[in-house]
Each structure stands twice: as structure tokens, then as C-alpha cells.
Design brief:
The structure holds two protein chains of two kinds. By secondary structure, chain A is α/β, with parallel strands linked by helices. Chain A has two domains: 10-50 and 88-199, Rossmann fold; 58-87 and 209-386, Rossmann fold (3-Layer(aba) Sandwich), CATH 3.40.50. Helix content of chain A is 44%, strand content 18%. Chain A has 15 helices and 14 strands. Chain A has helices at residues 24-38, 41-53, 65-71, 89-102, 116-128, 138-143, 145-153, 168-182, 199-221, 238-244, 264-267, 305-313, 323-337, 343-355, 379-386; strands at 10-11, 14-15, 61-64, 74-79, 107-112, 131-137, 157-161, 186-188, 229-233, 253-259, 269-273, 276-280, 316-321, 366-371. Chain A has a six-stranded mixed sheet with strand order 3-4-14-9-10-13, with helices on both faces. In chain A, strands 7-6-5-8 form a four-stranded parallel sheet, with helices on both faces. Chain B is an alpha/beta fold. Chain B has one domain (8-264): TIM Barrel (Alpha-Beta Barrel), CATH 3.20.20.70. In chain B, helix 10 (216-223) packs parallel to helix 12 (245-264). The mean pLDDT of chain B is 96. Classes of the chains: A alpha/beta, B alpha/beta. Chain A binds chain B through residues 9, 16-22, 24-26, 163-164, 169, 173, 176-177, 180-184, 270-275, 277, 280, 282, 284-289, and chain B through 56-61, 63, 67, 71, 74, 79-81, 102-108, 128-134, 151-158, 161, 165, 176, 178-181.
């Protein structure tokens, strides 16, 4: 199977466009703009040039000699942490900023959890001269103070959200409420492979560069072979969708790692929130429940609909990692390879460290991990947690 | 020629409208303290139908007032089907319209939800995050269960789509008066009158305008262009601030009087 275009806005039974009437025309306009841009060589050239000359692509693949020795499996890292702004989020926002300009809109709203997508959006808006408003839950404003300041330095306005769980879910609610009122002049730059069609598909297409690059890079390292496993953390799931799309047609086993306290695929049931149908943490009455994770970027009760589809079809499997093993994994990577991962990305390392040598991930396997972001933003939080 | 048969909501609203009356639909969030007494107060004050909000955890079309009302009701332990069951045997005297978000319907099960509405005397449903493209499954279950589905039209809805909404909406067509979420506004937005006129030019179904209709003056102003209004946040703000059902009844009576003045012109 492949990660193909959605049919009628759906991946199997998942996805769709569950939207208030006021937002339907904007999503139709966005789909049209994306389809024509994606098929337009000039757009592709401009997008590729910005990713190369501004965002620092291609990012390298690093072979982890000391970590491999420690775990008994051969570990390769796709280094999205080295992209401009410190994570893979830049790939998506450059694409959406280009679309914003193409649609003649001048204002961008975004949600952010860890602040990575907020910083990336603020960056792209500075680059393109767009007005930028970022919604962020109060809890996250506190635990990601550094990123809040970065966004402000970049000229964005950060609006703290005090409703509900005061995390990513509520930041999305507030961004959507803003968008309903401003849709004629504003683009909503969603940061993950979630939301109403065309977002899950469009964001995956903007992130597939990760998988496309990695596929060639890994074959070079492995003398033409593909890895046995491809592992990525999953909150909404954009970095996972990006790297999986480069390996879905190979024999590689695809593994997404959800945070234990926000594992929509592992612990959720189908539901509809934020515009699409997917797995969702909720009670029996359909009220969405709160996620709890050490990582603000994964603190979300839902997951992108294409991941629901990949899980349902069995092409990818989804495991979980808990907060304390994530902290251990962060230290492990820091001390064996000199790389401090983002808490989000450390989930992938945590599962790898736990599973390596087991029947699920036999010794001697070759593993590609998407290191989706760097841990600079988390250092203060981690300092508090390890104190 | 086909014989048109309307559901109880559309029948009631058409016949009231056709006598020259302007229509008033006040709202209450299900599960707030005293909410069933509020229904009675609304009816006594001259409501033509009542919108009852079944709370959802993530109401993206609602502003701070309805968000707070929803959260308070949920904190009080209200559940969707439990709330509907508490209506059983309660003869309100005007048609009830349930408003909730799609996940509540989806998790209850389309047929079970429709049946529960029907069994508990609720005539119609409004599901604001279920656009035409996703309407099918619910619409079939609702029609089989004898429940009308009210559709919303937005200021940015293009004409061809507006025509389809008018054709498919049941009970009435809900004109969203502003671009934005529910909530009180200082004055009537130009977009409210424009959507009212566009809808009235397109359909003979009752056209009601909601979102930002806060005062008797607003209601009267809009009733010049539409068949009536829906008032939610202005009432819920008072209820959240401790007003009694009688207080809310007085507020609805003032809206009624303003509308009757327009109708009498």
C-alpha cells in the first residue's frame, strides 16, 4: 500500500470536513489553492529553494555508533533537529506561507503546544511579511516560556488560552474561533496532519520531504538497503507522516510512538473533533477528555486521520512511551551521541531503548528514527524535572 | 404536484409566521440549574420554539458565554442522553430544537440519538459542525426517526450553496448573522441583514437570524428583514450571573414585545 491522496477528503473511513458553514468556503479555497500550487512547477521550485537556502535542507542522516553499541541495534537518525527553527515544523509552514500569499491573505493564525509550530509559523510570517497570531494554552505558555519569547521576538502576537485544559486542544479551539471571524483575510496554519480536509493531506505533502530525503540517504549508508524499522513520535503525527511516506512502499516496519497519557490510537475510539474523524480520547458520551504528557507538543487527545487509517489497515503500528522513560531517553541520547532531543522526539528514542533486543525489535536490526526536533526549548523544563 | 408535509417545528413556525407574527426562539443550555423552569418561563413569555443546547467539551462555534454555560453543565454531570431523558413527560407547549456538536451525535449513534430526541418530544436538531458534505448519515437517521434537521447559512456561503441549504433545511433556515462565534454584540451587524435578505429572496421557509442578537432593539431591527430571531448568549449571560427563570422570562417578554411591534406595523 501507499500513502496516497485522500478520496473525498478521507483516508478510508477517517478524515472528512466536519466544519461550521462559515469555514467551508475557506477550506474549499485552500484545497483548490493547494492542488494547483502543488501541480505548479514554479511553486515547487520556490518551495524547494526556500527549504534549501533558508531552512537548511536536506537535513543529514546521522549514524549513532555509541547508541547502537549500547542497544544492540543499528540506529540512524534523520536530523530534523538541524532544520531552521529546530524542528521539522518549518517544512510545513513555509509551504502554507507560500499558499497564504498565493490566496492573497495577509494574516495567519496558528495554534501551538510546545511552541515549535508557533515559532516556525512566526518565522515564516516574518520572512513573508505576514501578520501572525499564535494561540497557546496557558499551561504551555508557562512550561515553554522560552518559545513564547522567541515568537514575540519574531514579531508574532502570542495569545494565552485559558479555557478547558489550557493546552494544545484548547489552543486549536481558540484558533478556530478566531478563524471563523476572520476567514476572509486570514489563513489558519495548522501545524500537524490533522484538522478538516485538506489539512491532513496537505501537511503530509509538505512533510514528505523528510521521507524522500531519508530514503536516499539511508540507502547510501546501507548499501542500497532500506531500514528494518522506521520510528517516529506521534502527537498529531506530522513528522511521522513525513518520514513514513518515504518508506511506506518498502518492507520497513513503521512504528509511531504516542505519549502514554495522550495515546489516541492505543486508547481512543473513533470520534470527531477539530474538523475530522479519527481516534480520539473521549468518554462514553462523546466528551473529549484531556491528555497528559510531559511533552507539550504531544499533549493532545486526538491524532491525524491518516494515522488512524494506517493503524486500522495494519501498515503502521503504534506504541507508547511514558514520561519517565522519555526523560531517560533524552539523557541517553545526550550522553551517547551528544544530541539533546526535544521531549517529543525522545518518545521515539524511549520506545527504541525499551524494545531493542526484544522480539518486537530484534538485536541486529537496522532502525531509522526521525529526530523531529531539538531539545533546547525543553532544557529549562527538564532541569526542573531532574532536580 | 407533490404534497408538502412539514414536521412539527416547520408546521408551527410557518403557521405562526403566516398569521403575521414574528418568530422568537430563545436558547437554554441543558443541565444548568433551573433549566427546565426556564423552558416554562420562555413559553409563558411568548417563545415560538426553544433551542436547547446539549453541551459538548469543545464548542468551537461558541463564544465565552456559551462555553461557560456548557462547561458548567458538564461539570454538573449532565450527559446528552440523560439530559434528553429528563424532558420525558414534560409538555413544554412549543417545539424544542436540540443543538449539539457532531461528536455527541456520532458517539450516541445516529439512530439512537434521533430516537432519543423523538421519544423525549424534541422536534428538531441543529448540528453546526455537520456541513452538507457530511450530512448524509445523520439526515437519513433523523428522517427515519421523524426529526427535522435545521441547517445553518453563513454570510460567506455562495448563492448556489445557499440554495441547496434552503432546499434541504427543515423547520426553518438558520441565518448566521455574523462571521464569528456566538456571543453578545453591541449592534446589529450589516452582515445579519444581508444574509436575512438573501435567504428571504430565496425561500419561503421561515428564516431566522441568530448570533449576536442581544437586545429587543436588535430583534426588532432584524425582524424587518427576517421572519424572526434566535437569542442565546444574552439570556445565558444572565442565567450564569444568577438570574432566575422569571428574570429570563421577563427578558424574553421584552424581546417578544419588540417583535410584536414590528409585526403590528
Amino acid at each position: 500500500m501507499a500513502m496516497t491522496d485522500p478520496v473525498n477528503g478521507r483516508f478510508g473511513d477517517f478524515g472528512g470536513q466536519y466544519l461550521p458553514e462559515s469555514l467551508v468556503p475557506a477550506c474549499q479555497e485552500l484545497e483548490h489553492a493547494f492542488r494547483t500550487a502543488w501541480a505548479d512547477a514554479a511553486f515547487q521550485d520556490e518551495y524547494a529553494a526556500i527549504l534549501r537556502d533558508y531552512a537548511g535542507r536536506p537535513t543529514p542522516v546521522t549514524e549513532c555508533r555509541r547508541l547502537s553499541e549500547r542497544l544492540g541495534v543499528r540506529v540512524l537518525l534523520k536530523r530534523e533537529d538541524l532544520a531552521h527553527t529546530g524542528s521539522h515544523k518549518i517544512n510545513n509552514v513555509i509551504g502554507q506561507a507560500l499558499l497564504t500569499r498565493r490566496m492573497g491573505k495577509e494574516r495567519v493564525v496558528a495554534e501551538t503546544g510546545a511552541g515549535q509550530h508557533g515559532v516556525a509559523t512566526a518565522t515564516a510570517c516574518a520572512l513573508f511579511g505576514l501578520e501572525c497570531v499564535v494561540y497557546m494554552g496557558e499551561v504551555d505558555v508557562e512550561r515553554q516560556a522560552l518559545n513564547v519569547f522567541r515568537m514575540k521576538l519574531l514579531g508574532a502576537e502570542v495569545r494565552p488560552v485559558s479555557s478547558g485544559s489550557r493546552t494544545l486542544k484548547d489552543a486549536i479551539n481558540e484558533a478556530m474561533r478566531d478563524w471563523v471571524a476572520t476567514v476572509e483575510t486570514t489563513h489558519y496554519c495548522i501545524g500537524s496532519v490533522m484538522g478538516p480536509h485538506p489539512y491532513p493531506w496537505m501537511v503530509r505533502q509538505f512533510q514528505r520531504i523528510i521521507g524522500e530525503e531519508a530514503s536516499g540517504q539511508v540507502r547510501q549508508i546501507l548499501d542500497g538497503a532500506d531500514p528494518d524499522y522506521v520510528i517516529a513520535c506521534v502527537g498529531g503525527g506530522s513528522n511521522a507522516a513525513g518520514i513514513f511516506s518515504g518508506f511506506v512502499d518498502t518492507e520497513a516496519k513503521l512504528i509511531g510512538v504516542e505519549p502514554e497519557g495522550g495515546a489516541a490510537i492505543n486508547n481512543g475510539i473513533p470520534g470527531v473533533v477539530h474538523g475530522s474523524k479519527s481516534f480520539l480520547l473521549q468518554d462514553e458520551h462523546g466528551q473529549v477528555t484531556e491528555a497528559h504528557s510531559i511533552s507539550a507538543g504531544l499533549d493532545y487527545p486526538g491524532v491525524g486521520p491518516e494515522h488512524a487509517f494506517l493503524a486500522d489497515s495494519g501498515r503502521a503500528v503504534y506504541r507508547t512511551a511514558g514520561d519517565s522513560e522519555v526523560l531517560d531517553a533524552l539523557k541517553l541520547l545526550a550522553q551517547t551521541e551528544g544530541i539533546i532531543p526535544a521531549l517529543e522526539s525522545a518518545h521515539a528514542i524511549a520506545w527504541l531503548a525499551r524494545a531493542a533486543g526484544s522480539s518486537e525489535l530484534p538485536a541486529g536490526s537496522t532502525v531509522l528514527v526521525n529526530l523531529s526536533g531539538r531539545g533546547d526549548k525543553d532544557v529549562e523544563q527538564v532541569m526542573g524535572l531532574l532536580a | 404536484m407533490t404534497t408538502l408535509t412539514y414536521g412539527p417545528l416547520e408546521t408551527a413556525l410557518r403557521s405562526a409566521r403566516d398569521t403575521g407574527r414574528k418568530l422568537l426562539v430563545p436558547y437554554v443550555t441543558v443541565g444548568l440549574p433551573g433549566w427546565t423552569e426556564v423552558l416554562g418561563a420562555y413559553v409563558a413569555a411568548g417563545a415560538d420554539a426553544i433551542e436547547i443546547g446539549i453541551p459538548f467539551s469543545d464548542p468551537v462555534m461558541d463564544g465565552p458565554t456559551i462555553q461557560e454555560a456548557s462547561q458548567r453543565a458538564l461539570d454538573g454531570g449532565v450527559t446528552p442522553l440523560g439530559a434528553l431523558a429528563s424532558l420525558a413527560g414534560l409538555d413544554v407547549g412549543v417545539p424544542l430544537i436540540a443543538m449539539t456538536y457532531y461528536n455527541v451525535v456520532f458517539r450516541s449513534g445516529h439512530r439512537r440519538f434521533a430516537q432519543s430526541l423523538r421519544d423525549n418530544g424534541v422536534a428538531a436538531a441543529i448540528v453546526p459542525d455537520l456541513p452538507l458534505e457530511e450530512l448524509g448519515d445523520w439526515r437519513r437517521a433523523a428522517e427515519d426517526g421523524g426529526v427535522e434537521t435545521v441547517l445553518l447559512a453563513s454570510p460567506v456561503t455562495p448563492d448556489d450553496r445557499l440554495a441547496r441549504l434552503c432546499e434541504l433545511s427543515q423547520g426553518f433556515i438558520y441565518g448566521v448573522g455574523i462571521m464569528g462565534v456566538t456571543g453578545e454584540r453591541g449592534e446589529v451587524a450589516a452582515s445579519s441583514k444581508i444574509i436575512a435578505k438573501r435567504l428571504k429572496a430565496m425561500t419561503d421557509k421561515p428564516v431566522l437570524i441568530g448570533f449576536g442578537v442581544s437586545t429587543p432593539a436588535h430583534a426588532a431591527d432584524l425582524a424587518e428583514h427576517a421572519d424572526g430571531v434566535i437569542v442565546a448568549s444574552a439570556l445565558m449571560r444572565k442565567l450564569l450571573d444568577g438570574a432566575s427563570p422569571e428574570d429570563l422570562g421577563e427578558q424574553v417578554a421584552a424581546l417578544r414585545a419588540a417583535l410584536d411591534e414590528v409585526a403590528g406595523d
